[in-house]
Task: structure prediction
Amino acid sequence: KAGVTQTPRYLIKTRGQQVTLSCSPISGHRSVSWYQQTPGQGLQFLFEYFSETQRNKGNFPGRFSGRQFSNSRSEMNVSTLELGDSALYLCASSWTGAQGNSPLHFGNGTRLTVT
Amino acid sequence: KQEVTQIPAALSVPEGENLVLNCSFTDSAIYNLQWFRQDPGKGLTSLLLIQSSQREQTSGRLNASLDKSSGRSTLYIAASQPGDSATYLCAVRSRGGSEKLVFGKGTKLTVNP
Result:
């Protein structure tokens, strides 16, 4: 079974631009979550989607947005990029059981550099 | 607000040594706790998932324990190997039905041949 796939692997953008990152979950997984990883803050939760609905959102500005499609694939978008948005963006998928006990499986991430 | 702490931040050991990584969390109302491994520049690899009702989980040379009442988990690695060198992250999922995980900052492990 294929794992979580994130594209592109690397991105270089300039301040003020916008960017879209893509995530394909493991087949059959309906939940997709996004995390930002930086050396200073570690891993921080961005948002989570389940069946095309955003179920939870982290403490990030409105420049960060996402969506999920009917095939569970997800995209996240960052508008008006700032230098501080440089980070590794990780996507995770899971099959959510009745109590949300299923493990999360992560992709290899998209490394975003803002110059 | 859930907070997760991992001590030590870095650990260097000789090959063959048994070692313990520590994780503590502030809110005991959790669904589960998950241990991950992260290699440089890569994503996270799930190692073990412990449900709140469980005390421990084992996979190969890895054993993770959970003491929910004291807010602690340990990851025991037996007979460490250079290939075990990586950053180990602990994450908890609090009750509420979301997939949100709260992560510790990790322990960077170096196993020297």
About this structure: Chain A is about 0% helix and 50% strand.
